[in-house]
């Protein structure tokens, strides 16, 4: 399954505007939009002991995203390792489903005063729980949400994108250019990847994928092969994402509170931690006036 058929070698593929458009749209609506929908829609519609609107968004994401990833693989001009793709899709769905449960509870805790810029044990509503073993349970929930769920979700996600990227090379120089539609989609796509990397705390996974893409581009260039329009779209989106991450880190470099939550060598704050720390305080100050 992993071998590239000889007859596939010089096949070309047009820019998949429909798939990239649907992919970008559903990422913004179903992934980025789910916590927003949970917050802005009335609690009377979605009680705290029932799934929120964001949970239904997440359920739709868990179905639609694997389908679009499979369609991307199907449209590749190369024969790609299908067994690896299918295993990755299964892992993706498992990870995203684990994340659905943990993230649902963690985001609903916001209505009870939970603050995402603090650790689980430092949160005012958690640290005084009795018995203290309940705090361990909330830390386990956080682990499933932020670590296990993210790993099983994002590792296969980036692996599938990289597998697809390996088939995006052509010997025809004229095909190594992007149409206007690709340029228009690049901004929203790059901004979403910035959100994905920062909120998911997966910079190491992202940067290794990006380095692997760069190495593959240089290797294929020696063979006289260049990226086609789909490969350029994905590669440039990753480059712009890196720039956005750098700007984000520089902007929040001296934030002492966020520094405390992210004490490691790699300092990349989560957007929702920034929101609960600064934007909520800003809204509260405005309401007091």
TrEMBL record:
The chain crosses the membrane at residues 56-73, 85-102, 153-172, 202-219, 231-253. The keyword Transferase does not apply. It comes from the Eukaryota. One of its GO terms (biological process) is lysosome organization. GO terms for cellular component: endoplasmic reticulum; membrane. Keywords: Membrane, Transmembrane, Transmembrane helix. Pfam families: CLN6. This is CLN6 transmembrane ER protein. It comes from Buteo japonicus.
């Amino acid at each position: 399954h992993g071998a590239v058929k000889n007859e596939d070698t010089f096949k070309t593929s047009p820019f998949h505007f429909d798939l990239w458009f649907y992919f970008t749209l559903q990422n913004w609506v179903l992934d980025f939009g789910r916590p927003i929908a949970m917050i802005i829609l009335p609690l009377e519609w979605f009680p705290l002991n029932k799934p929120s609107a964001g949970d239904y968004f997440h359920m739709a994401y868990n179905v639609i995203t694997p389908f679009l990833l499979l369609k991307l693989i199907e449209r590749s001009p190369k024969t790609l390792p299908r067994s690896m793709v299918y295993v990755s899709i299964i892992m993706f769905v498992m990870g995203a489903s684990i994340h659905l449960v943990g993230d649902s509870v963690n985001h609903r805790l916001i209505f009870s005063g939970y603050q995402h810029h603090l650790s689980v044990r430092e949160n005012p509503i958690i640290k005084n729980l009795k018995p203290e073993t309940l705090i361990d349970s909330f830390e386990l929930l956080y682990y499933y949400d932020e670590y296990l769920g993210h790993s099983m979700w994002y590792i296969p996600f980036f692996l599938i994108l990289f597998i697809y990227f390996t088939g995006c090379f052509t010997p025809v120089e004229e095909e190594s250019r992007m149409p206007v539609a690709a340029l228009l989609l690049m901004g929203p796509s790059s901004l979403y990847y910035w959100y994905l990397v920062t909120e998911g705390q997966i910079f190491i996974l992202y940067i290794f994928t990006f380095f692997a893409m760069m190495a593959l581009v240089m290797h294929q260039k020696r063979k006289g092969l260049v990226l086609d329009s789909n490969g350029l779209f994905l590669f440039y989106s990753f480059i712009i994402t890196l720039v956005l991450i750098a700007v984000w880190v520089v902007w929040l470099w001296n934030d002492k509170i966020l520094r405390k939550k992210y004490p490691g060598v790699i300092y990349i704050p989560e957007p929702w931690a920034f929101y609960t720390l600064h934007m909520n305080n800003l809204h509260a100050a405005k309401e007091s006036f």
